[in-house]
Amino acid sequence: MALQATDWKIYGKGGATELLGLKPTTLLSRIKKMRIVKGK
């Protein structure tokens, strides 16, 4: 999962949005819609 690979960094250089080719708002919307939460 891209979030795990980037240690939950969403924005900026080396973030999940850069890996996935998405806008940050799109990724945040999908995270919320899928009810993804950061694991412990």
Radius of gyration: 9 Å
Which overall shape is indicated by the principal axes computed on the Cα atoms?
globular
- Measure the end-to-end span: 15 Å
In total, how many beta strands? Answer: 0
Beta-strand content: under 5%
How does the major sheet shape up? none
Q: Roughly how much helix do the residues carry, as a percent range?
A: 40-55%
Structural class assignment: mainly alpha
The mean pLDDT is 94
Give start-end ranges of low-pLDDT stretches.
Answer: none
- Summed up, the helix count is 3
Order of helices and strands: HHH
**Overall tally of structural domains:** 1
Topology of this structure?
Layout (H helix, E strand, L loop, with lengths): L1 H4 L10 H5 L3 H10 L7
Describe this structure in words.
It is a single chain. With 40 residues, this protein is mostly helical. It has one domain (2-33). The chain is built from three helices and no strands. It has helices at residues 2-5, 16-20, 24-33.
Please give a handful of descriptors for the protein shown.
globular, single chain, 40 residues, 3 helices, mainly alpha
Put the structure in a nutshell:
Helices cover 48% and strands 0% of the residues. The protein has 40 residues and is mainly α. It starts with a helix and ends in a 7-residue tail after the last helix.
